Amino acid sequence: MDIFRLTDGETPLIVSMPHAGTFLPEDLAPRMTAEGQSVPDTDWHMEQLYGFAEALGATLLSATHSRYVIDLNRPPDGASLYPGADETELCPTTTFDRTPIYLPGEEPDQAEVETRRARYWDPYHQQLSAAIEQTKARHGHVIVWEAHSIRSQLPRFFQGRLPDLNFGTGDGRSCDRRLIEQVFALAKEEGAYSSVLNGRYKGGHITRTYGDPESQVHAIQLELSQITYMYEKPPFEFRPAAADRLIPALSRFLEAALAWTVSDA
Fold first, then answer.
1. 100 and 36 in contact (C-beta within 8 Å)?
2. Which of 38, 182, 197, 258 is deepest in the core (most CB within 10 A)?
C-alpha cells in the first residue's frame, strides 16, 4: 500500500489531506481493539468532498494510512500543538473518546514510534515539501489548503458544538492577512454555516510549519464540522444532499484563494 495518493496539478494550489486514510498495516491491526480497528477519528470522505479541486488544477495529496498509524499533522518530536490542552499523541493510543486503541501491552514504545515516523511520516512530508518547491518554482507562490474534518461535538477537546467552518492560520502567521480576509469574508456570507477564524483549531503542524508568507507560501487549514456533510456515527456514511450544499462553498473558498494569487501575490 502506498503511503499517499498524489495528483499533480497546474495551478498554485495544493490540497493536503493528511487524515483521510483508513488503512491499517497487517502487522498492526491485530494488536488493536475493535474500536481502534474501526478508525472512528478519520477525516472521513475528504477525497470525495474535495473531488472538485482537481478541475481547479489543484495538486492533491492524500494519506492512505490511518492517523492511528501515525499522525501526519503532529510535530515529529511529539511536541504539543496546543500547550495545556488535551491532545492525542504522534502515534495515538486512545481515540477522541478516550477509548484504548491497543490491546493491553500492545501500545507502541518509543522505538516503534521512531520506526513509524521514518516509514510513514517522513515520506508524506518529503512529498509535500517537494510539491511546494515545484509549485513555487513554477508559479512564484503557493497556497497550501489543509483539508480536515472532525465530529461536531467532542467534549474531550471543546465544549458544546463546534462551528461548521473552522479556519486556522496559526494566529495569522501562516498566510497573508489579505488572503485569509478574502476567504473568510466568503465564509461569513454563507448563511447556512457558522464559521470562525483561529478559534479552537488554529492549524496543525503542516499549516504552521509550511506556511511562510514572506516566502510566498501561504497555508490555510479548514477544519470542517462533520455534521455538515456526513453521519457522525458508525458507519460514518456520506450524506450526498448535505455535501451538495457544502461543496459549492468549498469551491468558492478555493477559487478565491486562486484568484488572490493571480491578482495580489
1. yes
2. 197
DSSP, collapsed to helix, strand or coil, labels residue 89 as coil
Instruction: State the pTM of this model.
Output: 0.96
> Which three cell numbers mark 242?
448535505
CATH number of the domain encompassing residue 8: 3.40.630.40
Q: How many domains does the chain have?
A: 1
Other CB atoms closer than 10 Å to residue 93's CB: what's the count? 14
Spatial CA neighbour of 153 closest among 140, 163, 141: 163
CA angle 114, 71, 84 (to 5 degrees): 100
Digitized pLDDT (tens) for each residue of the chain, 265 residues in all? 899 999 999 999 999 999 999 999 999 999 999 999 999 999 999 999 999 999 999 999 999 999 999 999 999 999 988 888 888 999 999 999 999 999 999 999 999 999 999 999 999 999 999 999 999 999 999 999 999 999 999 999 999 999 999 999 999 999 999 999 999 999 999 889 999 999 999 999 999 999 999 999 999 999 999 999 999 999 999 999 999 999 999 999 999 999 986 666 5
Cβ density class 129-152: b for 16+ within 10 Å, e for less: eebbeebeeebebbbbbbbbbbbb
Q: Which domain holds residue 180?
A: 4-263
Cell 480497528 locates to: 37
Q: Which amino acid is it at 135?
A: T
